[in-house]
Amino acid sequence: MSNELPQLDRLTPEEKRRLLAQALSRRAQAPPAASPLSYGQQALWFLYNLEPESWAYNTLFAARICSPVNRPALHQAVQALFDRHESLRTVFGLYEGRPAQRIETDRQVDFQLFNVAGREWEELNQALIAEARRPFDLENGPVARVRLFTLAPDNHVLLLAAHHAVIDLWSYAVLVDELGQLYEQAAAGLPLSLPPVARRYQEFAYWQRALIDGPRGDALWRYWSEQLAGELPVLDLPIARQRPAIKSYNGASHVMTLDEGLAGHLRELSIREKTTLYTALLAAFQALLYRYTGQQDMVIGSPMAGRHLAGFEKVVGYFVNMVPLRTRLDGRLSFRELLRLVRRTVLSGLEHQEFPLSLLVDRLGLARDPGRSPLFDVVFALETPEFDRAEIIPFLLGQAGSRLQWGDLVLEPVMLPQQEAQFDLALHLFVTGNSLSAAWQYNTDLFEGAGIGRLARHYEVLLAGAAANPDQPIARLPLLSQAEC
Description:
The chain has 485 residues and is an alpha+beta fold. Helices cover 36% and strands 21% of the residues. The strands form four sheets. Strands 5-6-7-2-13-12 form a six-stranded mixed sheet, with helices on both faces. Strands 8-15-14-11 form a four-stranded mixed sheet, covered by helices on one side. The chain has a three-stranded antiparallel sheet with strand order 1-4-3. The longest helix has 20 residues, at 449-468. It is globular.
């Protein structure tokens, strides 16, 4: 087999099956009760052992249910969901000195009911936050929990929390979709039944390690070692406070909605330039960072879904991989030229996205600074509703007006205050119909809310200027709003 394998998405079904079979053959080398971690899980396991009481990698789904709830049916549906998805019953430990995961076959779901009738919403909100922030014990479990808070017979809040090592956003979409189906069946007194899950998460972990150990892994490493060669830049955004010696995860978020007309203009520009909305928004973000720092070399992280093989679409687990995108630019470039440059960077990064970030950091031998994240401190993401039930992703992202129907139940999203930040700054953009919304997540030990608000306004003004005149040099694109002029 050639050392230069094509992108995974371009492999034939037979080639994919052969790769997967090669990966699964390694299962005989592990003890029956344990299997290796994926590289992403291994990184989170390392972070967990550094700070086992940290809640920085807790994830959650919260919804208000504006209907009477059949509590026994909900409990039955939740247990069936946990029985169905092994990742929700996973515990982590060491086997012969190496991290491994083990599936608990008979674990009962951690499901609790709370009667909070007569309580004020603020008091309930604090209880939700306390549950969301309670650390998970990855060694003994459980790694996920479900809570139902009842204010009145037709007013409840459902909370599902899980450690990031066993779940990602796509997985939450799977769980929410299936829990709705299971609840409808249980409430109607029907047998609980869903199509079987085609794959197991452990198969992904074996496949990933086989890929990295083979010729494709060698080709991926050569690419990234070249892309990230030399002295790597550290993006020094102006911060309001002195950086702590040890990185903290204290965070907040600033939310904004971009004008619908602006979103349309950006889509039109993307089509003319034969690129994507993601690339246009990323290029503008990099132009903004250049204007704030003057740095001509920068690395930004961007998350990719990581579900490369057929059959893993309905598997719950941690698949996402953060891809480092390195761009060299200067202020003389027009926005159109920058857009084309970023397009090449993005396409090349996507071609090589299978290489795990944690392994990349290890092989690069980067000096660890306890006050920073390795490789990059700033993240950019565009979340789009690609799940087969398009309404679920906007619901999970808390978009205003979004709703879900579980039989007779009507669910509305509950957004808890952002209180953690895994990076210095992360811009998450969401497609909302014809417009765009944005959440600027930031570390509160570094930035103040007012400064992030200005940054967000400057980004919107820069986007409008770039869409209106893409041939203008990025050093001259407008930043100040009319109120600031």
